[in-house]
Amino acid sequence: KFLQSAPTLWTILPTGNIGGTRKLIPEKKTALVAYGYPQSLMPHVVDNAENALKTDWKPFCWKRDDGKSWCVVQTWDARYDDGWKKAFNPQNTNPDKEKFDPQAVEEFSQAMCNIFDIKEDKFPTSFLK
């Protein structure tokens, strides 16, 4: 799906520090990746970043259904070429739920739907060994 304008990728750390930002220009052989475990914003970050959470960070941070904690999907881009595929052997199904926590997978999928304005319930995800 092509958006009217390129979305901005924010790499947000649980501390609230920004690891980087950049416009996501559609390119072949580029992927977005995240950790295989759930991450949460530290409580003081939520208190001090209320405006950012409502705007810029919104695709990557939201209040979880527990009503207490805020997830942060720390995301960055990577080359997705033959060498990368050979090194990481991407799989279409979760090969190890200990390594790829289902909550983290769900939150990454939600973040991708958010940033690309996709209305489906799930975003296709690959798992790297």
Counted beta strands: 6
Return Rg in Å. 15 Å
- State which percent range the strand residues make up: 15-25%
For the largest sheet, list the strands in their spatial order: 1-2
* Residue-averaged pLDDT: 86
Helix amount: 10-25%
SSE arrangement, N to C: EEEHHEEEHH
The helix count comes to 4
Largest beta sheet, briefly? Answer: 2 strands, antiparallel
Characterise this structure.
The chain is α+β, with helices and mostly antiparallel strands and 129 residues long. It contains four helices and six strands. A two-stranded antiparallel ribbon has the order 1-2. It has a two-stranded antiparallel ribbon with strand order 3-6. A two-stranded antiparallel ribbon has the order 4-5. It is globular and about 45 Å long. The two termini are 28 Å apart. The mean pLDDT is 86.
List the keywords:
129 residues, alpha+beta, two-stranded antiparallel ribbon, 4 helices, 6 strands, 25% helix, globular
Secondary-structure topology with pairs:
Elements: E1 8-12, E2 18-23, E3 30-34, H1 43-48, H2 50-54, E4 61-63, E5 70-72, E6 75-79, H3 82-88, H4 102-115
Antiparallel strand pairs: 1-2, 3-6, 4-5
